[in-house]
Amino acid sequence: MSKKIKINGIEISYREAGEQNKETILLLHGFPSSSHMYRDIIKLLSDHYHLIAPDYPGFGLSETPSIDKFEYTFENISETIEKFIDTLKISSFYLMMQDYGGPIGFRIASKRPQYIKGLIIQNANMYMEGMGEWAKKIGGYQKANDLEGLNNFKNYLMSLEGIKEQYLSGSKHPEKIDPISYTTDAKFMEKIGINEVQTALFYNYGTNFPKYPEWQNYLKEHQPKTLVVWGENDKFFSKHGGAAYSKDLDTATIHFFEGGHFMLEEYSDEVAELIKEFIK
């Protein structure tokens, strides 16, 4: 069920399914998607758990305040989602994260470890050895101070062609990937003012790397129960990024799939079964 709530004056759209007295899973999406990326997982798990998947400000069906009215940084979005959690009175949950959901979710988990019953990580990186082909490409532009090249690549990633490649690249069964996914994301990227919003967040991504040691220490100290499901052909985050979680977690369960960045499009049934086994 799609719902809306005001957080600090910003209308946040979110999907909610399942009974509230059951275990809660909070699902944090990546770029350039929204809670839409979890639609199949929510459908498959709603009889078993209480699921909540918000769209961040500037994403999906949530409000998109201009860059002079909202600070589009990972720090500020994580604080917004914290307030979203508080407003809905969620104080104990499993946290599922993909892509941008990683730096947002790990900020929350490391600040509020007592809230976290477990982590479900899908191509959300927090290790430098996890940098894939596209991540290295972005880093190369930055190192060379090639702002034109960087901006052109950013614009490609926001285009229909680029978004489609993010979904299809590395997939084993491209026929399973519903075109509605990348066409929906592309339409959201065409909203008025969205280019400035997404550009601000794109250039803020570098603030996440200095946080990696802090988040790794969180894993070492608290040893949260963790399930890693990873598309091993992801152009952003390589297979090494998924495997790296075993360095800091004693009992992490790690599964690799022959898929890409949005591997849930192909393997939602398999991942849903893994989640049920993991929580049980």
Automatic annotation (TrEMBL):
The keyword DNA-binding does not apply. SUPFAM superfamilies: alpha/beta-Hydrolases. GO terms for molecular function: epoxide hydrolase activity. This is Alpha/beta hydrolase. Gene3D superfamilies: alpha/beta hydrolase (3.40.50.1820). It comes from Flavivirga rizhaonensis. Residues 24-266 form the AB hydrolase-1 domain. Pfam families: Abhydrolase_1. Signal peptide: none annotated. Keywords: Hydrolase.
